[in-house]
Amino acid sequence: MTRTTIDFGIDLGTTNSAIARLNGVEAEIVKNDLSSDTTPSAVMVDRRGRLIVGQAAKQRGESDSGNTCLEFKGLMGTTGKPKVFEATGRSMEPEELSAEVLRSLRQDVAKRTGEEITAAVITVPAAFDLSACDATRRAAGLAGLTHAPLLQEPTAAALAYGFQTDDENAFWLVYDFGGGTFDAAVISVRDGEFTVVDHRGDNFLGGKLIDWAIVEELLVPAVAREFQFTDLRRGNPKWSAAINKLKLAAEAAKIQVSSAESTSILVELQDDSGQLVEFEYDLLRADVERLMEPFIVRSVNLCRKALEESRLGPGDIQKALLVGGPTLTPYLRRRLADPREGLGIPLDHSQDPITAVARGAAIFAGTQRVDTITAAPPPTAGEYAIELEYRPVGPDIEPFIGGKVTGGATDGCTVEFVNPEYKGKPAWRSGRIPLGPDGTFTATLWAEKGRANTFQIEFGDPTGALKPITPGTLTYTVGVVETQPPLIHSVGIGLADNEVEWLLKKGTPLPARRRIVLRTTIGVSRGEGEGMIRIPVVEGEHHRADRNRQIGRLEVIPEQIRRDVPEGSEVDLTLLIDESRLVTARAYIPLLDEEFEHAINLQSETAPDPDRLARDVAAEKQRLAQVRRRASEFADPRAEQVLARIDNENTVADLDKLVDAARVDPGASITAENRLRDLRAATDEVEDELEWPALVQEARELVPAVRDIVRDRGKASHQAPLEAAEEAVQEAIAAHDADLLRQRVAELRQLALRVLDESGDLAFLAFEELRTLQPEMRDQREAEQLLATGRRAVETNDVGTLRQVNAALGELLPSPPPPPDPFSTVRRSR
């Protein structure tokens, strides 16, 4: 059949994937060869080099982990750690593995429907960084999907739940707890359209962490007690096969205890001597619920943060939409419904949480027109074609469309749209619409809710006779649609001082564009060196660059330039991010008068070295211990609250296990690095809380001091910046934002320095401070001569000479002198 919209949507999941097709207003799952709704995201290469995807691959993973790969979604966008299949030596990057899953889903469609699809919407976690989105795009291309718009998973879930909703003016919360990722999104539904108001997520929080907790907390200790397994642990490569068997058994048992008080695990393992032993264990639901607790706490905290940033409370949210397999667990639902320890929001689980994302993706695919992907061929002589401008899905029952008829003379011609099934009546007709001299027209249609409205297009010549036209139909469906998707994380570049130059801020509607001028930090000779630009690109919200996730780098390599480029040369960078969060960057170098495409390398670094990771975690645990001691001394309630959050989320214990596992599992290594980044940010937060009273006092003392400087030394033009700076300080205090307040205090100090510089007083202050640094100066004889000249300039009030003396004295110091204190007494008379 000829489709006018994409109609197929794919949930590319950590543990399972699925594909759905939009049929009218219903999204139907396309089942696989096993008649299952989902296909395990598992890939195997056997000893004969045959590639196997899905359930068979997952089952073989129990006995042949060296030739099987699972849970590779978390590695999307990273480099340097391909999966090497032991029997054949074949290696595959994460996007290549994902491509095989996508190819398998395409084949399922072909077998079930006979249709070879080349376009589909693919979902990604909202928390996915830009490098992972780019890797998903590459995977789609490798799988034969030449057009694959990306859709955020919470948006897909909202569409699955609300496509035909009658709710208006409501807020929803999407709670998406998947196999390997978690997303919380606040959705605003208004007049048939919805918008993502705010989002919080974690790419390394999902059901597989519960599986590992069962393995490490329950099964491994039980095996070690009963049998001879020396140093049995996840991080010991000797026991990789045994650990993998326990992991798969834990996953299956976890699902079973959702509907039973206990279940039996039976696994055959090989002990120290190579003897096969049968390990049997009764897994209790109560134990699984206990192990789930820290992960639920973390997810609830992310939901609360999203609500807080949206300035909403639980009472403002109509319902929480449950998505992901773990939300089938009765305990999780009870915890979420609890107003004290959970969210206290009514839960909506009317949709299948396992397939909701795939079905929502299909609904979104129904809004994506095929004729915008590939241009239609021009009509042959004597045949007419119609170009249509309209939204295939929208909230209006009276949609407005425009169009143009081509292929021949259109004077006196008409078009008419006919809905043959309108409200059970014989037909609804738009009436004949005259075409303009250039074949253009506009029309308003009437559509019915609850079904796809297919309008026949009738083209009439000047005599009224109907002539064939292509296409001959138009389909429109009344349904809830998404407005512009927002940028989930701020995007910036890391600077040498560990600060961030933000390019696009969180919440910016997509598509978005930003232009910025940078300067090279080193000189580059043509064809030599490592790169003219090699600046880290980060995603996150923290003002410290290293507290955000590095997702790639900006670079223009020396081989690309025609001649040498000196240090300090301008680079004009343009960054574009589309609705799928795919990035394009162009760098223009004025000196060369040349533009470079693809100036951004969106690939994260490889998994961190396990030894370095262990050292970093040990250092951060030590810093946390010091902060705890300070917090107990000050008894600051806000600091204690953050520390309690760290403990309740089991952050440190999780890190210890992940660091050990990182020696054999690249996924654990990357997860550990991200959890370490979270711990650092949380410890920063505690430190900020402990410093807050002193910081507020400093700000409140600074404001009147700067006000005095402006009054005594400033001009009328300084009054407005002063008032703005004072207001900014008060806003930072009210927001209880330590980082922001530090920034506002620094800006206030800069204002004072600017006023004193313009009045000439700053030169005298700088000279007084430089006099105290004379012992550090390299040439004492020259320093003494300069100081003598400076003293005479002070006596004669010669500001120009004094500035020259200060510059020369500064050159004699081993490092640049600190800026003068603008609040010292000005030691001269006016």
From TrEMBL:
Keywords: ATP-binding, Chaperone, Nucleotide-binding, Phosphoprotein, Stress response. This is Hsp70 family protein. Belongs to the heat shock protein 70 family. Residues 809-830 are annotated as: Disordered. Pfam families: HSP70. InterPro entries: ATPase_NBD (IPR043129), Heat_shock_70_CS (IPR018181), HSP70_peptide-bd_sf (IPR029047), Hsp_70_fam (IPR013126).
